[in-house]
Design brief:
The structure holds two protein chains of two kinds.
Chain A: H1 7-14
Chain B: H1 2-6, E1 9-20, E2 31-39, H2 40-49, E3 60-66, E4 82-89, H3 93-109, E5 120-126, E6 131-138, H4 144-158, E7 167-170, H5 171-176, E8 186-187
Antiparallel strand pairs in B: 1-2, 1-3, 3-5, 4-6, 4-7, 5-6, 7-8
The chains are: A mainly alpha, B alpha+beta.
Chain lengths: ~20, ~190
Amino acid sequence: GKKQYDREFLLDIQFMPACI
Amino acid sequence: PEVLSKLHLLQYRWVLWFFKNDRSRAWQDNLQLVAKFNTVEDFWALYSHIKLASKLSSGCDYALFKEGIQPMWEDNRNKQGGRWLLSIAKQHRHIELDRLWLETLLCLLGDCFEEYSGEVCGAVVNIRTKRDKIALWTSEAENKAGVMFIGQIYKERLGLSTKTVIGYQAHTDTAAKSNSLAKNKFVV
C-alpha cells in the first residue's frame, strides 16, 4: 500500500533507537 | 530480514544533491549526488550527518528529488513544471530557514500531497547573500488543480499565516527571466 507518514510520526522515528 | 522489516519504507526512493558554486566549472560539474535512501531511518541518518542548510556557504544548494529526476529544469519531468517559491530574508535565516526546509522535506517524504503526490518532483534550498530560497518543484505547471492543491497543503504545513502569499512560477518563465523574478502563475 501507499507509505504515507504524518510529520509527528516521521519526527518520532528520528530519536528511536536503531533496531539492531 | 528482521531488521529490514522494522525499517519504515518510503513511498519513493529519494536522492539528496549538493551544489557548490564554482564559477570556473560548468554548472553541472558543481552538482554532486550525496546519497540515495528509501527509508525513514536512512533519511534521519543522513540528515543528522550533514550540515544544516543555514550553515552552508553562500552560493550552495541542497536539493532532494525523486530518484530518476535530475534537480534541473532540463530534466524531462521538470521542463513542463514549475515551483512554489519561498523567499526568506537574511535576518530570518537562523530562525526560520532550517525549520522551513525540514518541513519541506517531511512533506516530500511523508507523501502528504495525496492523489497529487505523483506531481511532486522534489525541492531545493538556495543559500544566497541577500535572500535564501526554498522551492517545491512540481512536474506540470498547467495542472492548475494539482498545483493549487499542493500549494495549499504546503503553505499549511509550513505554518505560514493566511496573510502570507506564496507564488508558483513555471520554469519556462523563470528560465526566460534570469535577472528578475518570473511572474506568478498561481498564488496561495
